[in-house]
Amino acid sequence: MINSVRNTVLSVLNKNNYGYLSPSDFNLFAKQAQLEIYEEAFSGYNDKINQENVRTSGTGYANTRRQIEEVIEGFSSTNFLYNFSGNIFFSPSLTTTGDQYFMINKVLCYPTILDTGTNTSVVASQLVDSTALFTTLGISAGDIVVNTTTNATARVVSVSSNTVIVLTANIFTATPRNYAIIDSSLFKEADKVTLSKISMLLNSNLTSPSTLFPAFTQEGDKLSVYPTTLATTGQVQAQYFRLPKDPKWTYITLASGEPVFDQSQPDYQDFELPLEDEYKLVAKILEYAGMSIRETEVVQFGMTQEQMQQQQ
Fold first, then answer.
1. By C-alpha distance, which of 5, 1, 3, 4 is closest to 288?
2. Domain ranges in the chain?
3. What residues contact 29, with CB distance under 8 A and at least 6 apart?
4. Regarding beta strands 113-118 and 178-182, do their DSSP bridges make them parallel or antiparallel, or are they unpaired?
5. Which of 212, 216, 226, 242 sits 20 to 30 Å CA-CA off 58?
6. CA 238 – CA 105 distance, rounded (Å)
7. Other CB atoms within 10 A of residue 71 CB
8. CA end-to-end span of the chain
9. Up-side HSE of residue 55: CA atoms within 13 Å toward CB?
10. Inter-residue long-range contacts of 246-254, CB under 8 Å, 24+ positions, other chains counted
């Protein structure tokens, strides 16, 4: 889609000789346009909910709330949070979960650690510990295995013996590496509380967070999870809505200096929005381009297109 969007933008700009939009400028404008449309999906969802509450929304094929839900849920991601120290965990980020988050939807806590130890040999996608008692301890498929040295996580596929577990991912590539195995069948959703309220909860015997009723606070890029016994990577899992990846129109340069689209480049990234948002992207990028080249007609064209879309 990104090449189609760029060709349309260049066609509009070149029609009246407004100037040339370089690939680097286009990529910058494309990033901002995608972020705008992404955030508008959440505010648009709120508008649809309000319309439903006053019985002014459509049903069946006219139920546009479902369309917005599908777009938003396409950015849903679920990952275990890396432990920072004690009961403090890093929020989702490029360095931990591999993506930036827009909003944390819920946090799940797994309080029961079934076993800990150190691997004694390396086999691809397996945990091998010659001193372990995996079968005896009742470890089963689906349980969470954490390489606590690297914070990498995997699930149990099967328990081959007391000393060997088959995993969904190759998280043990060297020895010795410490591990923890966590019961996946016992979990609770944590309530988010404000920083001002958590002190009151912790000081009360009746309302203090427990493994049955966990809670968490958020401060900066970290989450504090209660009770404080939740202190290992693999015990706290977040379901969140990530930000879309930055789009990048990649190219090769011909002898004449003309860039030609090449999606085989390793840093190529298409838009992550659905195809029906292509016209929105074109309109918004034209607005940015118009401001860049100081052409009010281009900005007004883009704004007019946006207004027409909102009225539909």
1. 5
2. 2-39+247-311, 76-110+187-242, 113-182
3. 21, 284, 285, 288, 289, 292
4. antiparallel
5. 242
6. 8
7. 19
8. 23
9. 0
10. 246/27, 246/31, 247/2, 247/27, 247/30, 247/31, 247/34, 247/271, 247/272, 248/2, 248/27, 249/2, 249/3, 249/6, 249/23, 249/26, 249/27, 249/30, 251/23
Q: What is the largest CA-CA distance in the chain?
A: 77
Q: What is the spatial distance between Cα 187 and Cα 112, in angstroms, rounded to a whole number?
A: 8
pLDDT at position 312, please? 47
How many other β-carbons are positioned within 10 Å of the β-carbon of residue 176? 13
> CA-to-CA distance for 59 and 125, rounded, in angstroms?
48
Q: Give the angle subtended at the CA of 141 by the CAs of 137 and 144, to the nearest 5°.
A: 80
Tokens of 281: 């992207």
CA dihedral 263, 268, 274, 279 (to 10 degrees): -80
152: tokens are 């990498």
Question: What is the rounded distance in angstroms from the CA atom of residue 24 to the CA atom of residue 81?
Answer: 34
What pLDDT is stored for residue 56 in this prediction?
Answer: 74
Residue with tokens 């988050």: 101
Q: If phi over 0 gives left and psi between -120 and 50 gives alpha, with beta otherwise, what is residue 100?
A: beta
109 token code pair: 């806590």
Token digits for 208?
């203090």
Contact 209, 215 (CB under 8 A): yes
